[in-house]
Design goal:
The structure is a single chain. The protein is of the alpha/beta class. Helix 9 crosses helix 10 (298-306), helix 11 (320-329) packs across helix 13 and helix 12 (340-348) crosses helix 13 (368-382). Helix content is 35%, strand content 21%. A hairpin with a 4-residue loop joins strand 3 (82-84) and strand 4. It folds into two domains: 10-183, 3-Layer(aba) Sandwich (Rossmann fold), CATH 3.40.50.300; 226-404, Nucleotidyltransferase, domain 5, CATH 3.30.420. It has helices at residues 33-47, 67-76, 107-111, 129-138, 158-167, 178-183, 189-201, 203-209, 276-284, 298-306, 320-329, 340-348, 368-382, 389-404; strands spanning 22-26, 51-56, 82-84, 89-91, 97-102, 118-121, 145-150, 171-175, 226-228, 236-243, 251-259, 262-271, 291-293, 311-313, 333-336, 351-353, 359-363.
Length: 408
């Protein structure tokens, strides 16, 4: 076995103590949470035989798990005693193994894992109470431990409420932010510049992203959305909303269903680097419905249309943003629990304020992590909103241009 020095910030040294059962490790971006816990678990796996379960609330593929981070660290430190497959990681000397699973609606699969010594739950701000109730008694081996790493989403995050606000016996709480990474010289310049820019120009985003503070209700544009686990069979798909992105911002696609006098919003895609062909492939593999996209990208809309997607640009005009927001506010809306990034946008999307802290009655769209999914939702609802005759004429003309691929 290669002898390697694996550095652990001293602020995390309590992880190595034996006097805790569950650990809440939380804070803002750049605080080394995931990298440090991954290093800690690799050290444990090399020292003795342990079984480690790596969990997220939603994991549709191994690519969405901690598998890549652990693999990168194994390669970085040249730990040749680990064997990496596409589904698992095993130490060939100690026999330790890493397993990767999603928690949401996966009760029997999680319960079937025997003999876990460690359970690591990433992005634990999204974990539901029902998932906690399944996981905790499953990790029951004497001396076993559960580690939750997360950035707080709102005041009612179940993991934070359970371990920090209410408290549990033998709980370790580590609240760590980016200043630890700066102190140890592990904070990249590119992140430092981003953090300083957010601190100077986007104080709300800075507090949430870099200091790990939950989103407050003050100044929110949307309120009282209901969270649901599944889309009812009787729900009718009526629209998709699409906000374009690529390298800096993600492309966001949401599906809008009509149900029981209201609407259900479901996150279909939230991803950077999607080409127009990739966007078309995603939509062509879903149930068909009209797609309403940001009309600022007419070339992309035409290209996606030519790939067989029924798509058109949203109608924009004077007061269209405020009128669109007002229409969405008037609707009874539910959001699926798997729409994690869209939920973050819902909680963080707020009215812009001036230097005196007074609302300007326009959305703060400088925080794209929150405005992008909300824009996609507004685009989808815009075509459901009762429109003026002029808007209908514009819409019909646009459809003609899309179908015949000719300029107006």
């Amino acid at each position: 076995m290669n002898q390697q020095t694996i550095e652990i910030p001293k602020e995390y040294k309590r992880l190595f103590d034996d006097d805790w059962r569950e650990a809440a490790v939380y804070g803002g971006r750049g605080s080394l949470k995931s990298h440090t816990v991954a290093r800690f678990l690799l050290i444990q796996a090399r020292g003795r035989t342990v079984r480690i379960g790596c969990f997220r609330e939603f994991q549709n593929s191994i690519a969405e798990s901690a598998h890549q981070l652990l693999s990168d660290l194994i390669n970085k430190y040249e730990m040749t005693d680990f064997k990496i497959t596409d589904k698992a990681i095993v130490n060939t000397i100690t026999g330790s193994d890493f397993l990767f699973k999603g928690l949401h609606h996966n009760e029997q699969s999680v319960k079937s894992i025997e003999g876990m010594d460690y359970a690591w739950v990433e992005e634990a701000q999204t974990v539901s109470n029902s998932s906690i109730d399944v996981l905790v008694p499953t990790v029951r081996k004497p001396g076993s431990k559960i580690i939750y790493t997360y950035n707080r989403l709102d005041e009612e995050d179940p993991v934070h409420k359970r371990l920090v606000i209410e408290g549990r016996p033998n709980t370790l709480v580590l609240n760590i932010n980016y200043d630890v990474a700066i102190k140890h010289g592990w904070f990249p310049d590119v992140l430092f510049n981003e953090m300083e820019d957010d601190k100077a120009n986007r104080p709300n985003l800075y507090k949430h992203k870099w200091l790990g503070e939950p989103n407050s209700q003050e100044g929110r544009i949307y309120n009282d959305w209901n969270m649901i686990d599944e889309i009812p069979f009787e729900a009718k798909l009526v629209r998709y909303g699409l906000d374009f992105g690529y390298s800096i911002d993600p492309t966001v696609i949401v599906a809008i269903y009509q149900y029981n006098g209201g609407y259900i919003v479901d996150e279909v895609a939230y991803q950077k680097g999607l080409s127009n062909k990739s966007i078309a492939d995603i939509l062509n593999n879903k149930e068909k419905a009209l797609v309403i996209a940001d009309s600022a990208e007419p070339k992309s809309i035409d290209e996606i249309y030519n790939y067989g997607v029924n798509i058109q640009g949203v109608i924009k005009g004077k007061d269209s943003v405020s009128q669109g927001i007002q229409y969405v506010q008037e609707q009874k809306i539910s959001l699926t629990s798997r729409s994690v990034r869209t939920k973050a946008g819902y909680l963080g999307y707020k009215w812009a304020v001036n230097r005196e802290g007074k609302s300007m009655n326009v959305p703060d769209d400088t925080i794209h992590e929150w405005s992008n999914p909300m824009d996609a939702i507004r685009y989808g609802f815009e075509s459901l909103r009762p429109a003026s005759g002029k808007a209908r004429i514009k819409s019909s003309a646009w459809v003609a241009r899309a179908k015949h691929n000719k300029p107006l």
